[in-house]
Amino acid sequence: MKPASKPAAAPPAAPPAAKPVAGASPPAGSLIARLHGKYSPMRLVLLRCGAFWLKSVRAWRLTLDWTVVLYLVLPALWVIGGMYADLLRHPPAWIDRVPAQTPTAILALLMVRARLRTFAERGDGLFLRSSGRWVRRMTAAGLTYTLAARLAVSFAAAGLLLPLLAHSAGWSLGSGAALALSAGLSGFVWTAIRDAAERRWQGLRRVAALLALRAAFMTAWVSSAAWALSRNDPVVAVVAIATLAAACIGLGWRRLGVSGTFAHELEAEQRAYGENVGWVLIDTEQAKMPPAGRRPWVLRRPKPLLRRRDEPLRIAELWLRSLLREWETARTLLYFAFLGMIALWLSPLWLAAIAWTGMCGLLLLWLNGLWGRWRGERYMALFEWRDDVRDASGAIGRLLLLRAIGLAWCVVIGTHAGWMYGGLWWLAVALLPAAGYLLLGWINGAATSVLALRLAGKSRSDAGDAT
To answer: pTM here?
Structure first.
Protein backbone atom coordinates (compact mmCIF):
# COMPACT_ATOMS: atom_id res chain seq x y z
CA MET A 1 0.00 0.00 0.00
CA LYS A 2 1.37 3.35 -1.09
CA PRO A 3 2.01 5.71 1.76
CA ALA A 4 0.01 8.89 1.78
CA SER A 5 1.93 11.88 0.49
CA LYS A 6 2.89 14.46 2.97
CA PRO A 7 1.21 17.82 2.68
CA ALA A 8 3.24 20.56 1.06
CA ALA A 9 5.23 22.59 3.49
CA ALA A 10 3.81 26.02 4.10
CA PRO A 11 6.02 28.95 2.99
CA PRO A 12 8.02 30.50 5.80
CA ALA A 13 6.21 33.24 7.53
CA ALA A 14 7.53 36.74 7.02
CA PRO A 15 9.35 38.14 10.00
CA PRO A 16 7.26 40.54 12.02
CA ALA A 17 7.71 44.15 11.09
CA ALA A 18 9.91 45.98 13.47
CA LYS A 19 8.06 48.52 15.51
CA PRO A 20 9.26 52.06 14.98
CA VAL A 21 11.37 53.35 17.82
CA ALA A 22 10.30 56.66 19.20
CA GLY A 23 12.73 59.40 18.27
CA ALA A 24 14.63 57.29 15.69
CA SER A 25 15.20 58.80 12.24
CA PRO A 26 14.50 56.81 9.07
CA PRO A 27 17.34 56.06 6.70
CA ALA A 28 18.72 58.82 4.56
CA GLY A 29 17.39 57.30 1.35
CA SER A 30 13.81 57.22 2.57
CA LEU A 31 14.05 60.80 3.80
CA ILE A 32 15.30 61.96 0.44
CA ALA A 33 12.56 59.96 -1.24
CA ARG A 34 9.88 61.55 0.95
CA LEU A 35 11.37 64.97 0.36
CA HIS A 36 11.45 64.37 -3.37
CA GLY A 37 7.81 63.26 -3.30
CA LYS A 38 6.62 66.35 -1.42
CA TYR A 39 9.00 69.07 -2.58
CA SER A 40 11.25 69.99 -5.44
CA PRO A 41 14.55 71.87 -5.13
CA MET A 42 13.04 75.02 -6.59
CA ARG A 43 10.03 74.83 -4.28
CA LEU A 44 12.22 74.26 -1.25
CA VAL A 45 14.36 77.27 -2.15
CA LEU A 46 11.24 79.41 -2.63
CA LEU A 47 9.88 78.32 0.76
CA ARG A 48 13.18 79.17 2.44
CA CYS A 49 13.34 82.48 0.60
CA GLY A 50 9.87 83.39 1.85
CA ALA A 51 10.75 82.31 5.37
CA PHE A 52 13.94 84.41 5.24
CA TRP A 53 12.18 87.60 4.22
CA LEU A 54 9.29 86.97 6.61
CA LYS A 55 11.78 86.57 9.44
CA SER A 56 13.53 89.80 8.41
CA VAL A 57 10.24 91.71 8.25
CA ARG A 58 9.24 90.46 11.69
CA ALA A 59 12.57 91.62 13.06
CA TRP A 60 12.11 95.09 11.60
CA ARG A 61 8.58 95.24 13.00
CA LEU A 62 10.12 95.31 16.46
CA THR A 63 11.17 98.88 15.63
CA LEU A 64 8.77 99.88 12.87
CA ASP A 65 5.47 99.46 14.68
CA TRP A 66 2.34 101.23 13.50
CA THR A 67 3.10 104.43 15.40
CA VAL A 68 6.57 104.77 13.85
CA VAL A 69 5.19 103.99 10.40
CA LEU A 70 2.32 106.45 10.81
CA TYR A 71 4.24 109.37 12.31
CA LEU A 72 7.75 108.94 10.83
CA VAL A 73 7.93 106.58 7.84
CA LEU A 74 4.86 107.73 5.92
CA PRO A 75 5.61 111.49 6.35
CA ALA A 76 9.21 110.86 5.28
CA LEU A 77 8.07 108.97 2.18
CA TRP A 78 5.59 111.74 1.43
CA VAL A 79 8.26 114.44 1.70
CA ILE A 80 10.82 112.48 -0.33
CA GLY A 81 8.21 111.67 -2.98
CA GLY A 82 7.23 115.32 -3.21
CA MET A 83 10.85 116.38 -3.60
CA TYR A 84 11.36 113.77 -6.31
CA ALA A 85 8.22 114.86 -8.16
CA ASP A 86 9.38 118.48 -7.96
CA LEU A 87 12.73 117.49 -9.45
CA LEU A 88 10.90 115.83 -12.33
CA ARG A 89 8.68 118.85 -12.99
CA HIS A 90 11.33 121.52 -12.43
CA PRO A 91 14.84 120.12 -12.96
CA PRO A 92 17.37 122.31 -11.16
CA ALA A 93 20.42 123.76 -12.87
CA TRP A 94 22.87 121.48 -11.08
CA ILE A 95 21.51 118.39 -12.88
CA ASP A 96 23.19 119.60 -16.08
CA ARG A 97 26.53 119.60 -14.24
CA VAL A 98 26.22 116.00 -13.01
CA PRO A 99 29.06 113.91 -14.51
CA ALA A 100 28.08 111.21 -16.97
CA GLN A 101 29.67 108.53 -14.75
CA THR A 102 27.36 109.27 -11.81
CA PRO A 103 24.52 106.86 -12.67
CA THR A 104 26.92 104.07 -13.56
CA ALA A 105 28.81 104.62 -10.30
CA ILE A 106 25.55 104.40 -8.32
CA LEU A 107 24.67 101.14 -10.06
CA ALA A 108 28.18 99.84 -9.37
CA LEU A 109 27.81 100.56 -5.66
CA LEU A 110 24.56 98.58 -5.63
CA MET A 111 26.16 95.69 -7.51
CA VAL A 112 29.19 95.17 -5.29
CA ARG A 113 27.00 94.73 -2.22
CA ALA A 114 25.48 91.54 -3.63
CA ARG A 115 26.39 88.00 -2.62
CA LEU A 116 25.47 84.55 -3.93
CA ARG A 117 22.49 83.07 -2.08
CA THR A 118 21.74 79.35 -1.87
CA PHE A 119 19.49 79.39 1.26
CA ALA A 120 21.42 76.54 2.87
CA GLU A 121 20.50 75.52 6.41
CA ARG A 122 22.41 73.62 9.06
CA GLY A 123 20.00 70.68 8.94
CA ASP A 124 20.94 70.03 5.32
CA GLY A 125 24.15 68.41 6.52
CA LEU A 126 22.18 65.48 7.98
CA PHE A 127 20.92 63.97 4.74
CA LEU A 128 20.22 66.48 1.96
CA ARG A 129 23.86 67.29 1.17
CA SER A 130 24.48 63.60 0.48
CA SER A 131 22.37 63.86 -2.67
CA GLY A 132 24.44 65.51 -5.38
CA ARG A 133 21.40 65.94 -7.61
CA TRP A 134 19.52 67.90 -4.97
CA VAL A 135 22.56 70.05 -4.15
CA ARG A 136 23.07 70.98 -7.79
CA ARG A 137 19.42 71.78 -8.34
CA MET A 138 19.19 73.88 -5.18
CA THR A 139 22.39 75.70 -6.17
CA ALA A 140 20.86 76.34 -9.61
CA ALA A 141 17.73 77.69 -7.91
CA GLY A 142 19.92 79.95 -5.76
CA LEU A 143 21.75 81.20 -8.83
CA THR A 144 18.40 81.96 -10.47
CA TYR A 145 17.26 83.86 -7.39
CA THR A 146 20.52 85.85 -7.28
CA LEU A 147 20.20 86.82 -10.94
CA ALA A 148 16.55 87.82 -10.53
CA ALA A 149 17.36 89.91 -7.46
CA ARG A 150 20.21 91.70 -9.26
CA LEU A 151 17.99 92.48 -12.24
CA ALA A 152 15.21 93.79 -9.98
CA VAL A 153 17.57 96.08 -8.07
CA SER A 154 19.28 97.41 -11.21
CA PHE A 155 15.98 98.11 -13.02
CA ALA A 156 14.52 99.84 -9.96
CA ALA A 157 17.61 102.06 -9.57
CA ALA A 158 17.76 102.84 -13.28
CA GLY A 159 14.05 103.65 -13.27
CA LEU A 160 14.58 106.22 -10.53
CA LEU A 161 17.61 107.73 -12.28
CA LEU A 162 16.20 107.77 -15.81
CA PRO A 163 13.76 110.70 -15.47
CA LEU A 164 16.38 112.87 -13.77
CA LEU A 165 19.21 112.22 -16.21
CA ALA A 166 17.24 112.01 -19.44
CA HIS A 167 17.58 115.78 -19.82
CA SER A 168 21.23 116.19 -18.80
CA ALA A 169 22.84 112.94 -19.97
CA GLY A 170 20.57 112.35 -22.96
CA TRP A 171 19.26 109.01 -21.77
CA SER A 172 16.49 107.31 -23.66
CA LEU A 173 14.26 104.48 -22.54
CA GLY A 174 16.24 102.01 -24.62
CA SER A 175 19.63 103.12 -23.30
CA GLY A 176 18.34 103.07 -19.74
CA ALA A 177 16.92 99.55 -20.16
CA ALA A 178 20.18 98.35 -21.73
CA LEU A 179 22.19 99.87 -18.89
CA ALA A 180 19.91 98.30 -16.27
CA LEU A 181 20.11 94.87 -17.94
CA SER A 182 23.89 95.03 -18.21
CA ALA A 183 24.10 96.19 -14.59
CA GLY A 184 22.03 93.23 -13.42
CA LEU A 185 24.16 90.78 -15.40
CA SER A 186 27.34 92.41 -14.10
CA GLY A 187 25.99 92.13 -10.58
CA PHE A 188 25.58 88.39 -11.09
CA VAL A 189 29.16 88.18 -12.39
CA TRP A 190 30.31 90.01 -9.28
CA THR A 191 28.48 87.58 -6.99
CA ALA A 192 30.30 84.67 -8.64
CA ILE A 193 33.66 86.43 -8.27
CA ARG A 194 32.95 87.31 -4.65
CA ASP A 195 31.82 83.78 -3.86
CA ALA A 196 35.04 82.34 -5.28
CA ALA A 197 37.19 84.87 -3.39
CA GLU A 198 35.45 84.21 -0.06
CA ARG A 199 35.86 80.46 -0.55
CA ARG A 200 39.56 80.81 -1.27
CA TRP A 201 40.77 83.34 1.33
CA GLN A 202 40.19 83.91 5.02
CA GLY A 203 40.84 86.71 7.47
CA LEU A 204 42.83 89.75 6.40
CA ARG A 205 43.63 88.24 3.01
CA ARG A 206 39.94 87.98 2.25
CA VAL A 207 39.30 91.60 3.23
CA ALA A 208 42.22 92.86 1.15
CA ALA A 209 41.23 90.71 -1.83
CA LEU A 210 37.61 91.87 -1.73
CA LEU A 211 38.64 95.53 -1.51
CA ALA A 212 40.97 95.15 -4.48
CA LEU A 213 38.38 93.24 -6.49
CA ARG A 214 35.68 95.80 -5.69
CA ALA A 215 37.91 98.68 -6.79
CA ALA A 216 38.90 96.92 -10.02
CA PHE A 217 35.34 95.82 -10.79
CA MET A 218 33.84 99.27 -10.20
CA THR A 219 36.55 100.98 -12.25
CA ALA A 220 36.08 98.58 -15.18
CA TRP A 221 32.29 98.82 -15.03
CA VAL A 222 32.06 102.62 -14.75
CA SER A 223 34.58 103.26 -17.54
CA SER A 224 33.12 100.68 -19.94
CA ALA A 225 29.49 101.69 -19.28
CA ALA A 226 30.28 105.39 -19.74
CA TRP A 227 32.07 104.60 -23.01
CA ALA A 228 29.15 102.50 -24.27
CA LEU A 229 26.65 105.25 -23.38
CA SER A 230 28.76 107.86 -25.17
CA ARG A 231 28.79 105.76 -28.34
CA ASN A 232 24.97 105.41 -28.26
CA ASP A 233 25.20 102.47 -30.65
CA PRO A 234 22.67 99.60 -30.40
CA VAL A 235 25.23 97.13 -31.74
CA VAL A 236 27.64 97.94 -28.91
CA ALA A 237 24.85 97.44 -26.35
CA VAL A 238 23.81 94.10 -27.86
CA VAL A 239 27.41 92.82 -27.94
CA ALA A 240 28.02 93.92 -24.34
CA ILE A 241 24.83 92.30 -23.06
CA ALA A 242 25.55 89.08 -24.99
CA THR A 243 29.09 88.97 -23.54
CA LEU A 244 27.81 89.47 -20.02
CA ALA A 245 25.12 86.81 -20.50
CA ALA A 246 27.74 84.33 -21.72
CA ALA A 247 29.92 85.16 -18.71
CA CYS A 248 26.94 84.59 -16.38
CA ILE A 249 26.23 81.20 -17.94
CA GLY A 250 29.86 80.13 -17.75
CA LEU A 251 30.37 81.24 -14.15
CA GLY A 252 27.05 79.71 -13.08
CA TRP A 253 27.89 76.40 -14.75
CA ARG A 254 31.29 76.37 -13.09
CA ARG A 255 29.74 77.11 -9.70
CA LEU A 256 27.41 74.11 -10.08
CA GLY A 257 30.43 71.82 -10.34
CA VAL A 258 32.12 73.07 -7.17
CA SER A 259 31.86 70.76 -4.15
CA GLY A 260 32.61 71.18 -0.46
CA THR A 261 30.95 74.59 -0.14
CA PHE A 262 28.46 73.81 2.63
CA ALA A 263 30.30 75.67 5.39
CA HIS A 264 30.80 78.69 3.14
CA GLU A 265 27.12 78.74 2.16
CA LEU A 266 26.06 78.68 5.81
CA GLU A 267 28.38 81.61 6.53
CA ALA A 268 27.00 83.53 3.54
CA GLU A 269 23.42 83.02 4.72
CA GLN A 270 24.27 84.13 8.24
CA ARG A 271 25.97 87.25 6.91
CA ALA A 272 23.02 88.03 4.63
CA TYR A 273 20.60 87.86 7.56
CA GLY A 274 22.92 89.92 9.75
CA GLU A 275 23.14 92.63 7.08
CA ASN A 276 19.34 92.71 6.85
CA VAL A 277 18.52 93.01 10.55
CA GLY A 278 21.84 94.09 12.04
CA TRP A 279 20.57 97.59 12.86
CA VAL A 280 17.55 96.20 14.71
CA LEU A 281 18.99 93.13 16.49
CA ILE A 282 22.48 94.51 17.05
CA ASP A 283 22.70 93.17 20.61
CA THR A 284 21.43 89.66 19.84
CA GLU A 285 23.17 86.48 18.78
CA GLN A 286 21.04 86.12 15.64
CA ALA A 287 22.43 89.22 13.93
CA LYS A 288 26.09 88.70 14.80
CA MET A 289 28.41 88.19 11.87
CA PRO A 290 30.65 85.13 11.81
CA PRO A 291 34.35 85.94 12.20
CA ALA A 292 36.19 86.46 8.93
CA GLY A 293 39.31 84.67 10.16
CA ARG A 294 40.51 82.13 12.66
CA ARG A 295 42.64 84.60 14.62
CA PRO A 296 41.89 88.13 15.84
CA TRP A 297 43.20 90.97 13.70
CA VAL A 298 44.32 93.14 16.61
CA LEU A 299 46.04 92.24 19.89
CA ARG A 300 47.06 88.81 18.65
CA ARG A 301 49.86 88.36 21.15
CA PRO A 302 49.02 87.97 24.85
CA LYS A 303 51.12 90.94 25.92
CA PRO A 304 49.70 93.19 28.64
CA LEU A 305 48.28 96.51 27.50
CA LEU A 306 48.75 98.24 30.85
CA ARG A 307 51.95 98.20 32.89
CA ARG A 308 50.39 98.09 36.33
CA ARG A 309 48.77 94.75 37.10
CA ASP A 310 46.38 95.34 39.98
CA GLU A 311 42.91 93.83 39.87
CA PRO A 312 40.91 96.77 38.40
CA LEU A 313 43.47 97.25 35.63
CA ARG A 314 43.41 93.57 34.69
CA ILE A 315 39.61 93.61 34.46
CA ALA A 316 39.67 96.82 32.40
CA GLU A 317 42.24 95.24 30.08
CA LEU A 318 40.02 92.21 29.54
CA TRP A 319 37.16 94.48 28.54
CA LEU A 320 39.33 96.52 26.18
CA ARG A 321 40.63 93.37 24.49
CA SER A 322 37.16 91.94 23.96
CA LEU A 323 35.91 95.33 22.72
CA LEU A 324 38.68 95.88 20.20
CA ARG A 325 38.55 92.30 18.94
CA GLU A 326 34.83 92.59 18.17
CA TRP A 327 34.88 94.08 14.69
CA GLU A 328 31.36 95.53 14.71
CA THR A 329 31.98 97.54 17.87
CA ALA A 330 35.46 98.63 16.80
CA ARG A 331 34.11 99.75 13.43
CA THR A 332 31.36 101.77 15.10
CA LEU A 333 33.97 103.45 17.31
CA LEU A 334 36.05 104.35 14.26
CA TYR A 335 33.00 105.68 12.42
CA PHE A 336 31.95 107.79 15.40
CA ALA A 337 35.46 109.21 15.81
CA PHE A 338 35.87 109.96 12.10
CA LEU A 339 32.44 111.57 11.69
CA GLY A 340 33.11 113.63 14.81
CA MET A 341 36.34 114.90 13.28
CA ILE A 342 34.50 115.97 10.13
CA ALA A 343 31.74 117.71 12.12
CA LEU A 344 34.25 119.59 14.29
CA TRP A 345 36.31 120.69 11.30
CA LEU A 346 33.26 122.03 9.43
CA SER A 347 31.86 123.91 12.47
CA PRO A 348 32.85 127.35 13.77
CA LEU A 349 35.19 127.29 16.76
CA TRP A 350 32.57 128.27 19.34
CA LEU A 351 30.15 125.66 17.99
CA ALA A 352 32.94 123.06 17.79
CA ALA A 353 33.67 123.55 21.52
CA ILE A 354 30.01 122.95 22.39
CA ALA A 355 29.80 119.99 20.02
CA TRP A 356 32.97 118.49 21.55
CA THR A 357 31.39 118.51 25.00
CA GLY A 358 28.16 116.94 23.78
CA MET A 359 29.88 114.25 21.71
CA CYS A 360 32.15 113.31 24.61
CA GLY A 361 29.08 112.92 26.80
CA LEU A 362 27.37 110.72 24.24
CA LEU A 363 30.54 108.65 23.84
CA LEU A 364 30.79 108.19 27.60
CA LEU A 365 27.18 107.01 27.83
CA TRP A 366 27.69 104.55 24.99
CA LEU A 367 30.90 103.17 26.51
CA ASN A 368 29.11 102.72 29.81
CA GLY A 369 26.42 100.72 28.02
CA LEU A 370 29.08 98.53 26.39
CA TRP A 371 30.71 97.97 29.77
CA GLY A 372 27.41 96.97 31.39
CA ARG A 373 26.59 94.60 28.54
CA TRP A 374 30.02 92.94 28.74
CA ARG A 375 29.81 92.65 32.52
CA GLY A 376 26.38 91.03 32.25
CA GLU A 377 27.36 88.31 29.79
CA ARG A 378 27.04 84.70 30.87
CA TYR A 379 30.69 83.98 31.51
CA MET A 380 31.54 87.35 33.07
CA ALA A 381 28.46 87.24 35.31
CA LEU A 382 30.00 84.24 37.11
CA PHE A 383 32.63 86.48 38.69
CA GLU A 384 31.51 88.16 41.89
CA TRP A 385 33.52 91.36 42.00
CA ARG A 386 33.47 93.80 44.84
CA ASP A 387 31.66 97.04 44.16
CA ASP A 388 34.78 99.17 44.43
CA VAL A 389 36.72 96.91 42.04
CA ARG A 390 33.85 96.89 39.57
CA ASP A 391 33.48 100.68 39.58
CA ALA A 392 37.23 101.25 39.33
CA SER A 393 37.72 98.86 36.41
CA GLY A 394 34.79 100.36 34.49
CA ALA A 395 36.10 103.88 35.07
CA ILE A 396 39.58 102.94 33.84
CA GLY A 397 38.32 101.27 30.66
CA ARG A 398 35.93 104.11 29.81
CA LEU A 399 38.56 106.76 30.46
CA LEU A 400 41.14 105.14 28.18
CA LEU A 401 38.80 105.03 25.19
CA LEU A 402 37.25 108.42 25.99
CA ARG A 403 40.64 110.11 26.10
CA ALA A 404 41.86 108.42 22.94
CA ILE A 405 38.94 109.76 20.89
CA GLY A 406 38.37 113.02 22.78
CA LEU A 407 42.00 114.10 22.48
CA ALA A 408 41.95 113.34 18.74
CA TRP A 409 38.97 115.69 18.47
CA CYS A 410 40.90 118.33 20.42
CA VAL A 411 43.75 118.08 17.92
CA VAL A 412 41.26 118.61 15.08
CA ILE A 413 39.82 121.74 16.73
CA GLY A 414 43.31 123.13 17.41
CA THR A 415 44.42 122.43 13.83
CA HIS A 416 41.29 124.11 12.49
CA ALA A 417 41.96 127.18 14.62
CA GLY A 418 45.55 127.42 13.41
CA TRP A 419 44.47 126.86 9.81
CA MET A 420 41.91 129.68 9.97
CA TYR A 421 43.76 132.35 11.95
CA GLY A 422 47.43 131.33 11.87
CA GLY A 423 50.07 132.83 14.13
CA LEU A 424 49.76 132.00 17.82
CA TRP A 425 46.56 130.10 17.17
CA TRP A 426 48.70 127.12 16.19
CA LEU A 427 49.52 126.72 19.88
CA ALA A 428 45.97 125.42 20.28
CA VAL A 429 47.15 122.15 18.72
CA ALA A 430 49.13 121.48 21.95
CA LEU A 431 47.13 123.47 24.51
CA LEU A 432 43.67 122.05 23.73
CA PRO A 433 44.69 118.38 24.17
CA ALA A 434 46.40 119.25 27.47
CA ALA A 435 43.25 120.97 28.75
CA GLY A 436 41.06 118.21 27.33
CA TYR A 437 43.11 115.55 29.12
CA LEU A 438 42.29 117.07 32.49
CA LEU A 439 38.68 117.86 31.60
CA LEU A 440 37.97 114.34 30.35
CA GLY A 441 39.35 112.89 33.56
CA TRP A 442 37.04 115.12 35.59
CA ILE A 443 34.02 114.24 33.42
CA ASN A 444 34.71 110.52 33.71
CA GLY A 445 35.16 110.75 37.48
CA ALA A 446 31.87 112.63 37.91
CA ALA A 447 30.05 110.15 35.68
CA THR A 448 31.55 107.21 37.63
CA SER A 449 30.32 108.66 40.92
CA VAL A 450 26.82 109.19 39.54
CA LEU A 451 26.71 105.67 38.12
CA ALA A 452 27.94 104.19 41.41
CA LEU A 453 25.18 106.00 43.31
CA ARG A 454 22.57 104.73 40.86
CA LEU A 455 23.80 101.15 41.16
CA ALA A 456 23.85 101.37 44.95
CA GLY A 457 20.29 102.73 45.01
CA LYS A 458 19.14 99.98 42.67
CA SER A 459 20.79 97.31 44.85
CA ARG A 460 19.07 98.66 47.96
CA SER A 461 15.70 98.74 46.22
CA ASP A 462 16.14 95.17 44.97
CA ALA A 463 17.07 94.02 48.49
CA GLY A 464 14.01 95.76 49.88
CA ASP A 465 11.76 94.09 47.32
CA ALA A 466 13.28 90.71 48.15
CA THR A 467 12.55 91.13 51.85
So the answer is: 0.66
